[in-house]
Design brief:
Blueprint lengths: L8 H25 L14 H14 L1 H113 L2 H14 L3 E2 L9 E2 L3 H29 L6 E3 L4 E3 L4
Antiparallel strand pairs: 1-2, 3-4
Helix pairs in contact: 3-5
Length: 259
């Protein structure tokens, strides 16, 4: 109706109302004739007492099944109790092991602290000893150097005295009579062993160092060398964390393996 071209709107509305009225008349006629009536079954609800009785009869009938289910449940409960007991024992063992591990850890920590403290104490003692040895070495070096300087000075002085004595001896030999030469030479040879007069009583006199003086100088130089070695070994020992060292008399040196 509404899709036609050139129709008046009022005409469209009139036609729609006519169709609607015809449809309503058909529905009213059908309802009067009972076409829309439905056949409903007449079901009465079951009383609750009968439902409960039926359920009870079913349970009584299935008593054997309930017994089996009960046995299964008891078996499951026993297994669960057994598993729970095992788990409890495992938990107790785990707690015991944990306690032992904690004790071992505490003991190890305490031992480590003790070792660190001992090592630190030993290191401090070694450093103190090293400083003391270095101080003693410096003092000894100063004393030895002073002794060496003094001996060198005495050596120079003795050489000067020997040279002067030699000059006086030569002058005395030149100016003394022949009878007094032997006494002068014997006196010089007895007093100073480092003066030698060449043949004929004339010529230069050879001056030598005193053997005792040379021996003292050599001994002081050897002591100085040993002290230097000792100081070097002490420094090395301090860097090595306080390795014990000892004097090796056979090798005239220091033994790093200890005494």
């Amino acid at each position: 109706i509404y899709g036609s071209q050139g129709i008046n709107p009022y005409e469209c509305l009139r036609q729609s109302c006519s169709i609607l009225m015809a449809t309503m008349n058909k529905m009213a006629t059908a309802m009067q004739e009972g076409e829309y009536d439905a056949d409903r079954p007449q079901n009465k609800p079951t009383p609750p007492a009968e439902l409960r009785a039926a359920a009870l009869r079913a349970e009584i009938t299935d008593a054997e099944g309930l017994g089996l289910k009960l046995e299964d449940r008891e078996t499951v409960i026993k297994e669960l109790k057994k598993s729970l007991k095992i788990k409890g024992e495992e938990l107790s063992e785990a707690n015991v092991r944990l306690s032992l591990l904690e004790k071992k850890l505490d003991s190890a920590s305490k031992d480590a602290d003790d070792r660190v403290e001992k090592i630190q104490t030993k290191l401090d003692e070694t450093q103190t000893l090293l400083k003391k040895k270095e101080k003693e070495f410096e003092e000894t070096m100063d004393a030895l150097q002073a002794d060496i300087d003094q001996l060198e000075s005495e050596k120079v002085e003795l050489k000067q005295r020997l040279n002067n004595q030699s000059k006086r001896t030569i002058e005395g030999l030149r100016g003394a009579p022949a009878s007094g030469v032997a006494s002068i030479v014997s006196g010089i040879a007895g007093g100073v062993g480092a003066t030698q007069v060449p043949g004929g009583g004339s010529g230069p006199v050879q001056v030598k160092d005193s053997p005792l003086l040379l021996q003292q100088i050599d001994a002081l130089q050897l002591s100085l060398k040993h002290l230097k070695n000792e100081n070097n070994l002490l420094k090395v020992g301090g860097e090595w964390g306080g390795i014990p060292m000892g004097w090796d008399p056979g090798g005239m040196g220091w033994d790093l393996h200890g005494m």
